[in-house]
Structure formats: structure tokens, C-alpha cells
Amino acid sequence: MPGQLVLLRHGQSQWNLENRFTGWVDVDLTEQGRAEARAAGKLLAEEGLQFDVAFTSLLQRAIKTLWLALEELQQPWVDVERHWRLNERHYGALQGLDKAETSAKHGEEQVHIWRRSYDIPPPPMADDDPEHPRFDSRYAKLDARVLPATESLALTLERVLPFWHDAIAPRLKAGETVLVTAHGNSLRALVKYLDGIAEDVITGVNIPTGIPQLYRLDDQLNVIESRYLGDADAAKAAAQAVADQAKGKA
Ligand SMILES: O=C(O)[C@@H](CO)OP(=O)(O)O
């Protein structure tokens, strides 16, 4: 029998709080984000989940969310693998900008295209921008050609999928219980793939911070069912709040 999969977006980050496009910028969790991570751990404990392995990105908001959830679960010894392929979608030249101000400047429709269209990436970051990932030592061992200067959701899925197939799927097929702690858009990419969501429907999907989503899968890793743990209405409201982040300032 295949194992169970939990997807968990990190808790509120400093730039979630400030409503800024984040992408690959390595901002920390806020105090509320840490509380969300602990609350996620509590929900996982209530569900009686015992994890065999956990995967996360190379960004501290996801790594620390995982630590706090595992601590709350009293499973701090679980094997953890960090990988750049689970990083957030690279937001190109938008990284650091205020979402509502960007909507006021470019229009909500354009910002919705940048945030949620399937295959239109935001404008790229300049190659010589000091924030470009090729200047970041954590990616130094990678071929610089794989490092993005911007990404659409389609490009994000393209780089998440090899890690899914090589690292995550085999563990699930072996019957293990797997926790993936990552980001709003790297998880949207994975959810699109797992749930077979159409390109024009994924634009309406938003993932709330710090609420675990539990998947039951069959032998071929087809989804039997998935649900957010805890209060379903709260998860819905939190997803809507994410959708509304780029509403222009009145
Ligand atoms: O800023 C980002 O990197 C993401 C996730 O926080 O934002 P959005 O929901 O606008 O895609």
C-alpha cells in the first residue's frame, strides 16, 4: 500500500507580512509564522501521522517551518532532505516589490497574470543583479544554467518534477509517510500535477500558509482524496486572503 503525503506551505514570512513578492529571497518566519508552523505540527499529531522522511527547500522559511512542525510532533529525528528544486518560484524583477503597489502601478490584471497565469513569467532579474542565485553560495555546486532569473508556474513545475520522480515518489511507492514543506507556488505546481488541474483552473488555486494538506494516493500515486487538516472554512478563508494580496490600494 502506498504511503501518505502531506504538503505544507511555510508559516507567515516577514515578506508575507509586508506583502512583498518574495520568490528566492531568503526571508525568515515572523512570530506568527512560527506559531502557524507549531499549529501545523499539532494538526499532524492529532491525525496520528508518523513520518518516515521529510523534504524541504533551501530557504529558511520552509526549513524552519519543518523544524517547528517536527518538534511539535515530537518527531525531530525524521530524515530531512533539502533541495533547491523545492524552492519557491523565482519571481524575477518583482522580488522585493510591494504587491498592492505593483497592482496600482501596472494594473490588477497584469499582476494577476504575473502571479497566477500558468506560463507567463514575470520580467526577469538582470543577470548581473547581486541577488541573482548564481552569486549565492548555496547554489555554487549547481550548473549555473539551471538557475532561474524568473519562472512561470510551468517552469517551476518543470524543475520540481524531476525531484518528485527521483526522490519523493519512490518513497511513497515504498509505503512511506512523507512530509513536503515548501512554498506557495512550488506547491501549486505539485498540486497541479498531482490533482491533474487544468492550466486555466490552477490560476484560481491559492495555498494558505501553515495548513497541512493530506493526500491519500493509490499504487500509481493517483490521488484518492486530499483535504486540509483542521478547520476547512479557515483554510478556505486563508486561501482567499492569499488571492487578495495583490488587490490595488484604494
Ligand atoms: O511572493 C511570493 O513568492 C509568493 C508566495 O509568497 O507570492 P504569490 O502568492 O503572490 O505568488
TrEMBL record:
Subunit structure: Homodimer.
Pathway where this protein functions: Carbohydrate degradation; glycolysis; pyruvate from D-glyceraldehyde 3-phosphate: step 3/5
GO molecular function: phosphoglycerate mutase activity
Protein name as annotated: 2,3-bisphosphoglycerate-dependent phosphoglycerate mutase
Alphabetic keyword roster: Gluconeogenesis, Glycolysis, Isomerase
EC number per UniProt: 5.4.2.11
Family, per entry: Belongs to the phosphoglycerate mutase family. BPG-dependent PGAM subfamily.
Highest taxon in the source lineage: Bacteria
Top-level taxonomy: Bacteria, Pseudomonadati, Pseudomonadota, Gammaproteobacteria, Salinisphaerales
